[in-house]
Design a protein that fits this description.
10 helices; 271 residues; single chain; eight-stranded mixed beta sheet
C-alpha cells in the first residue's frame, strides 16, 4: 500500500520526472473531446496534472487545451518533489498554479479532472487499485445530469507517439483507450509496451487484454488491402472489424485520430 499522508509527507514516491513538450497531446485531445460537456457545465472547472515531472510543460499545455472547450478552466500541477514545484513557479499565471503533494491531491475543491500520466509505472501492480480508489474519491462526485469527475491514468513513450490509458469516474474504471501515431505502427500489439501498470503484466495468454491485442493484430492483417489508402484507413477498417467481438465505445471520428476505446470490463484482469 502507498504510505499515508502526514503534515510533511505527501502520499507517494518521487518519479523519474521525464517529460517533453507535447508528450501528452493525444491524451489531452481525447479528454477535451469526451469530457467537454462536464467541463463546460462547471463555472470554473479544476483539473489536476498529477506528477507533471521535472518541467511544467504538460500542465501548461493541459490548460491551453482545456480552455479550447472550457475557457474558465483552471489547472493545478501537483508534484511530490518540492524542487520541481519551485522550478515551476515562474510559469504560474491566471488559471495555472503548482503545489507540493501526491495522491492526496491537495486542492481546495474536488477536481473535474485528474490526469496521472506515467506516474504509476514505477509502482507494483498490487498497489494500483488502492491508488485508483484514493484518486477517484477526490473527484467531483456524480449528480443528477452529471457523471462527475474523470481520472485518466496511463503510460506513453517519451515523445507521445504511443499511449494507453484507463479512464475512471467516481465509481471506478470505465474504459481503456489505445492511441498512436499511425505512421509509427507496425502492429497494434506494439502498444502493449505502453499498457498502464494495471494491465501490462496481464498481456499473457488467458488474460483479456492479451486476447484483445491478438484479435487486433488479426484484424490489422485482414485490413492490409486498405494500406494502399494509408495507415488511417487500415486502422479504421481494423477497428470496425473489432467491434464485432469487443465493446468498442467510440466511433469513426475518434478512430481517425488513431484511437480506439474499449469498455474496462472487457479488458480487466482476471481475478
Amino acid at each position: 500500500m502507498p504510505p499515508r499522508a502526514t503534515a510533511t509527507r505527501p502520499v507517494g514516491t518521487v518519479t523519474r520526472g521525464t517529460t517533453n513538450p507535447n508528450r501528452l497531446r493525444r491524451m489531452d485531445r481525447w479528454i477535451a473531446a469526451v469530457h467537454d460537456a462536464e467541463l463546460r457545465r462547471a463555472a470554473e472547472p479544476v483539473a489536476v496534472d498529477l506528477g507533471y515531472g521535472a518541467a511544467p510543460w504538460t500542465a501548461v499545455e493541459l490548460l491551453d487545451r482545456l480552455r479550447t472547450v472550457a475557457p474558465h478552466a483552471r489547472v493545478v500541477g501537483v508534484e511530490i518533489d518540492p524542487a520541481r514545484v519551485a522550478a515551476a513557479r515562474p510559469y504560474v499565471r491566471a488559471g495555472l498554479d503548482f503545489r507540493h503533494g501526491g495522491f492526496e491531491v491537495p486542492v481546495s475543491r474536488p477536481p473535474l479532472l485528474i490526469r496521472a500520466a506515467n506516474v504509476l509505472r514505477q509502482y507494483d501492480e498490487g498497489e494500483v487499485a488502492a491508488v485508483w480508489r484514493r484518486l477517484c474519491a477526490r473527484l467531483a462526485p456524480a449528480s443528477e445530469g452529471s457523471r462527475g469527475g474523470l481520472l485518466v491514468e496511463g503510460t506513453c513513450d517519451e515523445i507521445g507517439r504511443r499511449h494507453v490509458w484507463v479512464a475512471l469516474g467516481p465509481e471506478g474504471p470505465r474504459t481503456v483507450t489505445f492511441a498512436t501515431r499511425l505512421g509509427s505502427l507496425d502492429l497494434p500489439s506494439d502498444l502493449a509496451e505502453r499498457l498502464p501498470k494495471a494491465l501490462i503484466h496481464r498481456n499473457v495468454p488467458g488474460e483479456p487484454v492479451h486476447a484483445f491485442l491478438r484479435d487486433f493484430d488479426r484484424a490489422w492483417a485482414a485490413a492490409a488491402p486498405y494500406a494502399s489508402y494509408g495507415a488511417r484507413q487500415r486502422w479504421m477498417r481494423a477497428v470496425r472489424d473489432l467491434t464485432a467481438d469487443w465493446p468498442v465505445t467510440d466511433g469513426p471520428v475518434r478512430w481517425r485520430q488513431g484511437e480506439v476505446t474499449v469498455r474496462w470490463e472487457a479488458l480487466a484482469p482476471r481475478a
